[in-house]
Structure formats: C-alpha cells, structure tokens
C-alpha cells in the first residue's frame, strides 16, 4: 500500500502527518486540509483584511464536491433505471409508465455543505422546501402530483399507484437538488465574483465576466429542466448529467487562480508569523503506536 492509502479512512491524520514531515517544503494545501491550520490561516488573513480569497476557495471547493456527489448519485439512478428497463436510450429520459423501481428518496437530500465547512466559515444557503407549489385558482391546483399523473395514465392498479408515487418523489427530489445548486451558484457569484460584491476576489475582469455569464446561462438551463421534469414527471438523465458537469466546472479557473495567489503571496508571509508557529505547536505529538506504523511504511 502507498503512504496515502494507509490514511484513506482518516484524512485528518493524513494532513497531520504531511505537515509533520514536510518541514520547510510545507504546502498551503497541507495546512488547509487541517482544521486547526485552516482556522489559523483564516485568522491571519482576517488580520490582513484579505480573507475573501480563502473563503471563496472553501465555498468553491465545497460546491464542486457537492456536484461530484450528485453526479455519483445520478449514475446510480441511471444504472438502476437501465436494469429495470426504464431508461430511454433515445432521449436520455426515464419512462415513468414503465417504472418498476420503488425505492424512495434515492436522490441526495438537503445535506448542506460537507461536515466541518460551517466551522470554516464557508458560504451556505438555506435548505429548500420539497413540497409542490401548484398554481392557485385552477382544477390542477386542487390535485396532488400523484392525482395528476394517475389521471393522465388512467391507472387503477394500486401497486402501480405506489410505483408512480415513487417516480414523482424521485423527480421532486431531483428538482429540489437542482434548485439548491442554482441557489448556491447565486450566493457564490453575488458574494465573491460580481464587481462591488461584499467579498470580491482578485481575479481578472475577463474571468470575472466569463463566470458571471456562464452562471446566468446555467441557472436559465436549470429552470427550464426543472419546469420540464415538473410537467412530465420524467427524469432526463442525459440533460441532468450535462448540467451537473457544467456546474462542477463553473468556478474551477477562479479557484485555481485564487489558490496560486494565496500560495505565492499570503502563505509565504504567514509561515513567518507567530500564528503559524502556534499552529505547529498545537499539533499533538505522535504516540508510540503511530510511530511504529509510520516506520513500517
């Protein structure tokens, strides 16, 4: 096994070990991977009135992780649909009338950002309401989503009714996830990217305009897909995958630029400060069992 594979189940221990053995070659990413190191570096940046870059880096990385998680879940759903004969290879959709997969809540719920990011002062958005909001004043508004789908299909089969309810739940959960992604993009763009934003980061105007334009385009596509799936109660796996992939790369260039800026400027000065020395001193000493494990590697 490689050195890194021995710590896969404990990323904090891996970050701790890398910091101990790196010495003068300590990388910024090693510090940011350690909760105490992150907090220490953030405190230093706040004293320099330069914390916006690190806050954006954390929010952007968290958003990318969220996108990757949803892409993984989408792949699982797609595989299950193919296995049960639900997946339409022609248009990438899912035929709800042939739905035989009845597991509930297969799409990830509103789990917020990954554990620990709140303590790191990342940007967060509130959870969304999963309920349906039909227009008032029409007959359709008085019907539940299940009633409308069953009325369209003319079904009286109770077992099929349950399957239809599961289909509706999956579509609603997926639409909720898309709405959440849209809100997260809005918060990050409004907080860090747009000119005169509260925590505007130091990136080129060209990149700034590119991110804002792409974000507007993605949010428009998101609304269109949500409306289509809400109307048909059919998951379009192909469009969902493309949209999530584009979401995951939205902030990549800006994250890269900001990380390099922090690495070459603020981090160099930080390593010469008392804050950095105090961070190193706060690391717990390695016990004998850990030392023996390290020697075996």
Kindly report the spatial arrangement of strands forming the biggest sheet: 1-2
Mean pLDDT level = 77
Task: Please count the beta strands (DSSP E, at least 2 residues each).
Answer: 2
- Structural class comes to mainly alpha
Distance from N terminus to C terminus (CA atoms, Å) equals 8 Å
Proportion in β-strands:
under 5%
Q: What characteristic shape results from the CA principal axes?
A: globular
Uncertain segments of ≥5 residues (pLDDT<50)?
96-138, 288-297
Question: What is the alpha-carbon Rg in Å?
Answer: 24 Å
Number of helices: 11
Major sheet size, sense and barrel closure = 2 strands, antiparallel
State the order of secondary-structure elements, H for helix, E for strand: HHHHEEHHHHHHH
Question: What percent of residues adopt helix (DSSP H or I)?
Answer: 55-70%
Please sum up the structure shown.
This protein is an all-alpha fold and 297 residues long. It contains 11 helices and 2 strands; from the N terminus they run ααααββααααααα.
Name a few traits of the molecule:
two-stranded antiparallel ribbon; mainly alpha; single chain; 297 residues; 2 strands
């Amino acid at each position: 096994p490689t050195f890194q594979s021995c710590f896969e189940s404990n990323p904090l221990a891996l970050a701790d070990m890398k910091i101990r053995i790196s010495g003068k070659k300590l990388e910024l990413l090693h510090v940011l991977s350690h909760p105490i190191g992150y907090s220490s570096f953030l405190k230093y940046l706040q004293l320099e009135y330069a914390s916006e870059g690190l806050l954006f880096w954390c929010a952007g990385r968290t958003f990318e992780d969220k996108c990757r998680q949803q892409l993984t879940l989408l792949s699982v759903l797609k595989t299950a649909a193919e296995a049960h004969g639900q997946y339409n290879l022609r248009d990438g959709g899912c035929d709800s009338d042939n739905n035989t997969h009845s597991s509930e809540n297969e799409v990830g719920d509103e789990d917020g950002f990954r554990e620990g990011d709140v303590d790191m002062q990342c940007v967060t958005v509130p959870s969304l309401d999963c309920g349906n909001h039909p227009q008032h004043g029409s007959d359709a508004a008085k019907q539940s989503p299940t009633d409308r789908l069953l009325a369209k299909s003319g079904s009286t089969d109770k077992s099929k009714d349950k399957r239809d309810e599961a289909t509706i739940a999956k579509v609603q959960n997926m639409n909720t996830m898309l709405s959440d992604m849209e809100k997260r993009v809005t918060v990050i763009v409004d907080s860090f990217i747009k000119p005169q934003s509260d925590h505007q980061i130091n990136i080129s105007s060209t990149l700034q305009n590119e991110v804002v334009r792409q974000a507007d385009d993605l949010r428009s596509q998101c609304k269109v897909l949500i409306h289509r799936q809400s109307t048909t109660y059919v998951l379009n796996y192909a469009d969902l995958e493309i949209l999530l992939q584009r979401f995951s790369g939205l902030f990549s260039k800006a994250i890269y630029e900001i990380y390099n800026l922090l690495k070459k400027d603020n981090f160099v000065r930080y390593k010469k400060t008392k804050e950095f020395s105090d961070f190193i001193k706060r690391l717990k000493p390695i016990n004998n069992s850990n030392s023996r494990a390290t020697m075996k590697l």
